[in-house]
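User: For a benchmark we're assembling, each entry needs the component sequences followed by a predicted structure for the full assembly. Here are entry 17's components. Please fill in the structure.
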Amino acid sequence: MLYLIDYGAGNIQSLANSLTKLGQTFEWVRSPEDIAKADKLLFPGVGAFGLAMKALATKGYIEPIRAHIEAGKPYMGICIGMQALCLGSDESPGVPGLGIVPARVGRFSPEDVDGLQKAVPHMGWNTAQIPAFATPSGPVDGEAFGRTYGSAKEEHYYFVHSYRAAFGPELADWTLSTTTYGTETFISVVQHRNIFATQFHPEKSGAAGLRILDAWLKLDGTPQTSAALGPRTLMHTQDVMFTLPTRRIVACLDVRSNDQGDLVVTKGESYDVRGGTEAGAKSEVRNMGKPVELAQRYYAEGADEVTFLNITSFRNWALDDQPMLSLLKVAANTIFVPLTIGGGIRDFTDPDGTFHPALGVAHAYFRAGADKVSIGSEAVYAVEQLLQRALALNGATDPRDAPDAALESDTGIEQIAWQYGVQSVVVSVDPRRVYLEEGEDIDPAHSACVVSGTDERPGKQGNARWWYQCTVKGGREARNLDVLQLARGVERLGAGELLINSIDRDGSNAGFDTQLIDLIRSHVSIPVVASSGAGSAQHFSELFAKREATGKATIEAALAAGIFHRNEVRIRDVKDSLVRDGFVVRTSDGAI
Ligand code: 1PR
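Assistant: Structure for entry 17:
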């Protein structure tokens, strides 16, 4: 019997769904005795190292896990389940790991090489390479991994982590594959006797990942048959090339009820999903299709991630919105790439006065199969609060200058990041351009956010200056906060990724607002997903290309909606076009 460890956080539902897809039955570990009953043990998870280790200790799982491993029974760890095998992690100083793999887990450092910026966390699709190993049965070639795990070609796997076990020759006997991020090479697969563990998420790595899981599930329990490497030493080290994950293409589904009460994918222009008639009356909510069916189509076409945005959630409390939760559950059963869900992740007080924290909403979404939650309006309020406290404490108007005392750990972002890890918190930014008149002064707090370029207002021409103002409630309300304050503020609070929309470009097919995206990118070190305005495959290359002015090419991911919904361009076409333009993307990885 296979048992799964659930320590109370992380996207374990995704793994459960993958196992079901592979026809594998399993039990959840509910007590230390269950671990003793397990023939095979699987420890998945994202989240913070210290929290995971403390939860294992509190539940009394540590000794039974050690005993399972010492008995030679198969153990598979994923992400935190791999890091837990190590001595400890800089993420949680003073908290010991299981101490089985003689490595300490450290944090990635941001790097900037030749205009390419390495963001932290490492989020995206990267490869797993077999180093040149010598074993008693001879050298191991780079295809050993593929032969054992059902594929002979180099595959991409989905990584999402800020900490890693750096690879060194002394760890050769524990290492099956390494991966390079920036110039840092770390262990991406541990394989040692009965232990197999991946830093990436096979359950989120499409068919390539499912093949790995399937191969491990099919092991007969004799440890040496897995990967069959035996004791190994590193023959020689290879030069490290600065490496980034592939550029990600994200399909986005804006979801809401239509006028008949059905949950539909909709798409508007400048956030207006109804459009208008010539007589000025509003027409019906545009219906682009059924959410799950469309998401499945995008998965099959090679989307690297799928995002669902509940765009009317500001009206209700998200957890009352049961159709959204059921939609996510069904999608997560069939889609094996990361799923993000946004809309309504916020604190809420019932009419009867009961308080529900944003963390509770996030928890329900993670349990339903989400890998990341995306926070919009609440992020704006959180940064406003942070700045108010900072202003009172030391007069700062830039969140980077806010003293630590201004952080009170009371926002949804902080709490979700603490519980589930920063990589699971996306902040969705909804800015609008505010044009400045000739000679108009701007509040000095927003001066870093002023850019100049072509005036894009209807009927206007020539050059203009503008700044990017944040909005809440799906663009319905503007706030006295600019996008740089928001981006720096949420990075400070613990967001792991930014999704940058543009109300001006939304649904326009005019291309991404690269001035907006570059402005934010150059002021934060977390990954950035550019959104709004994609109208052709070429627009993605333009977004990812180096800018003449700065020599930088640093955008990690691009999101689009309308062109995919309307079948104007398929995800495959975008990727083919990117490959022709010299970008590395994840291409179709075959069937499981
Ligand atoms: O504020 O935390 O409840 O989150 C609400 C979420 O819903 C936010 O992420 C906000 O961006 C989104 N949202 C609210 N209203 C709308 C609307 O369209 N009326 N959708 C909306 C925003 C923006 C993109 C869109 C791209 C790409 N959608 O995600 O898909 O602009 O479109 P394109 O490729 O067709 O140009 P909260």
